[in-house]
């Protein structure tokens, strides 16, 4: 082994590394976010649409869940005494975060209102319920999804007139109250629903933080209300300040989840501004952690059928036109296009002339080859960037479910701990970071 990290060197390698991961689900070439989140959080590939369960669970079939649950690196970190957190711009019970704490045959079971009667009668629980009950001491939870926490028809605190923002729960539970009731009385637990309240908190005294800033997903960064909604990078800053107080270290999952939504809508400008905010969040995390004791992994769960071409010159706006007309239909075209999606436009039997529309608008839908209401994911491999202890293990091409095993190996958490004790029992110096708090920050959804 090139760095001799098992037993012969006093220091584990700390470096930056880049690799590729294969994202397919067990039953799908082109994956969805539920199966992929299960892969890179729980370490096993799964069927599309399922979270926190092995491939023995079939989507929508509640009775295939029991016995097939798999646990996540968030749970492994918690069991090892680390603090743990989830930060997302989607609903906190959306596919990606839910694989960290839930076991569900269907990613769409946000609350019991979205579940079929058969699944309810067979005893399956919705994902919001599982968020509050499965791992009761998750230290930080931030994102959207308020409505799934409240009884059916309860008015939302922010959008009082909006019926779609009202509570959804058929069981009448108030999951915010339940979240509070599970926290020790001698600890400081705070629920906040807007940015002003969040930024007023004295984070040195906060032990548990639940921030739910929208009834559903959070707003796109370009549309964000700076009074009511924190940015992704602000949430990351707050989360790390709370989590890093634990001398044993922390695990934080950060999702720039609306990058994906921008693409599904064919709105490249929204998607790319979400990606820029994700980049700021990575920079924020970088400023607040050290290469010496923090493994940071940045990746996407899957790709999209999103392209950038047309021989544009340097300095051209990425949202601009290619410098030539099509040599076939004699019309201009944008540098950004989609393979499929809602931007397919035919006017008078021909492809729309984009110079007649505002293609630089925030909500412009780039042209696609095939009409679809929702643009699809892509099936190709995606990049994985890593730095910190054991980052070199993310090098070359890997299956997506390899990622949490690398993180667990580096942190000496989870089931496979032999290498952690072998080093010291062999009489060689124990690897340095083994004795130090190790923080893990997977940050995802670049694409
Ligand atoms: Zn998607």
From TrEMBL:
Q: Which residues bind Zn(2+)?
A: 260, 264, 301-302, 377
Cofactors per UniProt? Zn(2+); Mg(2+); Ca(2+)
Gene Ontology cellular component terms for the protein in this record: mitochondrial intermembrane space; mitochondrial membrane; plasma membrane; side of membrane
Q: Which residues are noted in the entry as Mg(2+)-binding?
A: 94, 96, 255
* Pfam short name (any one): Alk_phosphatase
Q: Which residues form the active site?
A: 33 (phosphoserine intermediate)
- Keywords in alphabetical order, please: Biomineralization, Calcium, Cell membrane, Disulfide bond, Glycoprotein, GPI-anchor, Hydrolase, Lipoprotein, Magnesium, Membrane, Metal-binding, Phosphoprotein, Signal, Zinc
How the cofactor is bound: the record states:
Binds 2 Zn(2+) ions. Binds 1 Mg(2+) ion.
Q: Which InterPro entries match?
A: Alkaline_phosphatase (IPR001952), Alkaline_phosphatase_AS (IPR018299), Alkaline_phosphatase_core_sf (IPR017850)
- Subunit structure of this entry? Homodimer.
Q: Indicate the family of this protein.
A: Belongs to the alkaline phosphatase family.
Q: What is this protein identified as? A: Alkaline phosphatase
């Amino acid at each position: 082994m090139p760095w001799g990290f098992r037993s012969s060197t006093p220091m584990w390698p700390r470096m930056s590394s880049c690799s590729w991961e294969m994202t397919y689900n067990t039953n799908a070439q082109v994956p969805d976010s539920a199966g992929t989140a299960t892969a890179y959080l729980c370490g096993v590939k799964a069927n599309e649409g399922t979270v926190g369960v092995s491939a023995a669970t079939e989507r929508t079939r509640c009775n295939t869940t029991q016995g097939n649950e798999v646990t996540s690196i968030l749970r492994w970190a918690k069991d090892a005494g680390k603090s743990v957190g989830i930060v997302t711009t989607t609903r906190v019970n959306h596919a990606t975060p839910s694989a960290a704490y839930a076991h569900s045959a269907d990613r769409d079971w946000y609350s019991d209102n979205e579940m079929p009667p058969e699944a309810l009668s067979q005893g399956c629980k919705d994902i919001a319920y599982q968020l509050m009950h499965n791992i009761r001491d998750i230290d930080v939870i931030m994102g959207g999804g308020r409505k799934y926490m409240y009884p059916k028809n309860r008015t939302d605190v922010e959008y009082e007139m909006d019926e779609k923002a009202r509570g959804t729960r058929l069981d009448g539970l108030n999951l915010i109250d339940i979240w509070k009731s599970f926290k020790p009385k001698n600890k400081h637990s705070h629920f906040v629903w807007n940015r002003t309240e969040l930024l007023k908190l004295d984070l040195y005294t906060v032990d548990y933080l639940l921030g739910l800033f929208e009834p559903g997903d959070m707003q796109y960064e370009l549309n964000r209300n700076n009074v009511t909604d924190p940015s992704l990078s602000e949430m990351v800053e707050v989360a790390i300040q709370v989590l890093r107080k634990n001398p044993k270290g922390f695990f934080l999952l950060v999702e720039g989840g609306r990058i994906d939504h921008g693409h599904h809508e064919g709105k490249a400008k929204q998607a790319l501004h979400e990606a820029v905010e994700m980049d700021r969040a990575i920079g924020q995390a970088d400023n607040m952690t050290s290469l010496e004791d923090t493994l940071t992994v940045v990746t996407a769960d899957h790709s999209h059928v999103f392209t950038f071409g047309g021989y544009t010159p340097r300095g051209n706006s990425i949202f601009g036109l290619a410098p030539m007309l099509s040599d076939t239909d004699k019309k201009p075209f944008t540098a950004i296009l989609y393979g499929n999606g809602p931007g397919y436009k035919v006017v008078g039997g021909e492809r729309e002339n984009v110079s007649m529309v505002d293609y630089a608008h925030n909500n412009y839908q780039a042209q696609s080859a095939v009409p679809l209401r929702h643009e699809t994911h892509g099936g190709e491999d995606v990049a994985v960037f890593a730095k910190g202890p054991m980052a070199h293990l993310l090098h070359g091409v890997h299956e997506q479910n390899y990622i949490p095993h690398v993180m667990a190996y580096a942190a000496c958490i989870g089931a496979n701990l032999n290498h952690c004790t072998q080093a010291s029992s062999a009489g060689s110096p124990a690897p340095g970071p083994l004795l130090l708090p190790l923080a893990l920050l997977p940050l995802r959804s670049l694409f």
